Amino acid sequence: MPKKPFNSPISNDASLFSRNFRSADFDRVPTKNIGQNAMPNRPRVSFKKQSRSGSKHDANNRRLRMAMSHHLDDDITMSSGSSNNNGRHVIFRGRGRGSLIGGRRSPVSQRGSRLPQNTGRLRQALLGDCSWYKIQIMYGHKYEKDFIINNLLSYISPDTFTPIMYKIIGQDAIFYVDDQKAANNLINCDRRITTGDGFKITVKVRPGYPNCEIDDTLKERMKLAMAKRYVAETNSLDLTQFHLDPELVQDHFCALFRPMMLIAVLNIVAEVIPNLHALNLSNNKLNIIERLNVLSKKFPNLKILYIGDNKIKEINQIDVLKDLSLEELQLKGNPLCNRYKTRNDDYISDVRKRFPKLLRLDGTELPRPILFDIADEGVVLPPTKQMFLNDPRAEKVAVQFMQQYFTIFDGDSRQPLLDAYHENAYFSLTIAPSSQIQKFNKYLSDNRNLFRTSEPTRRRKLLKQGRLPIVSFISEMPKTQHYFNTFTMDISLVTDGFMLITVTGCFRELDTKDQQIRSFNRTFIIVPEGSGYCIKNEQLHLAHPTIEQEKQAQNDRPLATTSSSQTQQEQSNATMTQQSQMPGPSQLELQPSTSAAGEPSLEIQQQMTMMLSQQTNMNLEWSLKCLKEVQWNYDTALAAFNDFFKRGEIPPAAFQK
């Protein structure tokens, strides 16, 4: 039985063939009757394998395979010059049902490499990472806009998109989207949606955006859109995703990433709202923002600017805005923020260099800036002082206490400092990080820098608690000479219950080979105790001295260079000094009280305690308790320790140091 003629909408003498030549394997397209002259029955067109190798036919086949692999998404119309085809056009479609590529009658040699099976991913890869995409619906003129858009939205649900400038051009429907994810979703809709009359919707996607002329009609539509986005109460204008505004998206491509469009919008705003206080330009795909340099001239009262979720790549691009006196800025969502993921402090610093008065960045409150707005450059600031006093009445107490403390600290023995600390005092040591931190080797094992010591057990171990452990620790530190000329002292808080004192300066290590000069910062909290004061809390911070500090140290005499007997005499004299007009106790009590009858002197007691601690491995506190219980008889204390130790009756706390 002869086959029925096939009517093609492409040309009167063109034929469309599928792999098995079944009507279900190709799209049905209604056509007009081509007349009686049409050939009633045409032979099938096939390309047979050529037996000749290395001929021009092989080279043509290779070029054909390469061309088809790069255009899988497009229909390829081939007009053969061979007389066997009688001038017919052969159309090869992309992968899908009825595809000639790779089939039994494929013109591509089956000996070659196979093409990818997942054409969806291939199509998505060909799109690249763009900001705008053109969507073409083949023969979309036959359907209403709502029918096409609703079917596409239903297929990609729950994802969505907004069609921009939907138009019918020729036989196709054209619109644009502003999102790569939406473009990839629409690619997957290709030939997946079947209409009621059995046709499959063909969707083509490629990067691109339309051109849009700026005329009076567009400017009027812009004004309508801006009027709805302006908030009079806060004097602010929200231009977020301005290209998707309902007043514009149907007929205009009003994308602010285009410099001319951005300037046109800003001119309209400056004409209507010259005293604008806040402007939001977020999510407009801005990548080149040089044109924003007009903001400082057009909007002198602008204090809040949002330009987040755009395409700004470098921090120096915002230099065009530095003439604005901004108080709030939003940049998050731009590629430049990715450079500061682990350097938040640097991010804040770099932004504040451009905007010194900034109070809020990316929704986070910033510390208030320290500004010196001095109109007369001839004004001279007052000189710095070595002492800050919150309460002048505390000066005599603090000065005498510090002189007494550092005199003993620089003496031959630091054991007299036992009475300078409270029974439950705390002490910690920190060292400033630097490239030469290895020069602090003698202190590093006790460095309690909380940024580097995160393990809770080690933090507790490095915190010295109790006067015996504290004095034991500072006694093991290198002997020192402090330089009084380098000292500064701040008394920032004074109450009836305590006094906060901060002392900075330099000292030299005496029992080290190179006798390094160190810079220190010591913070003391002293509280009333008996007839004097004692230290309840101390933090010692060590660092390398500055060049100026080293010069001061070399030109100064040490604070403590006297002999041991002279030091003891000075301590006794200092203890007798009376302090008037000071709330609380009026006498410093740094020296030990008179020993009870029958007890050894304080110096011998300290030596016995240290010796027992070294011999038994108990801490100083428990060694002192043991000696007191046996009336300071060393042999009895040692024998008692051995007896209790054998019976396992000494608590673990006695060995914690």
UniProtKB/TrEMBL annotation:
Q: Which InterPro entries match?
A: Leu-rich_rpt (IPR001611), LRR_dom_sf (IPR032675), NTF2-like_dom_sf (IPR032710), NTF2_dom (IPR002075), Nuclear_transport_factor_2_euk (IPR018222), Nucleotide-bd_a/b_plait_sf (IPR012677), NXF1/2/3/5-like_LRR (IPR057125), NXF_fam (IPR030217)
Q: Which locations, inside or outside the cell, does it occupy?
A: Nucleus, Nucleoplasm
Annotated GO biological processes are:
poly(A)+ mRNA export from nucleus
Positions of the NTF2 domain: 397-542
Region named Disordered: 30-62, 548-600
Residues annotated as domain TAP-C: 603-657
Which family is this protein grouped under? Belongs to the NXF family.
Tell me what this protein is called. Nuclear RNA export factor 1
Q: Which organism is it from?
A: Microctonus aethiopoides
| Phylogenetic lineage | Eukaryota, Metazoa, Ecdysozoa, Arthropoda, Hexapoda
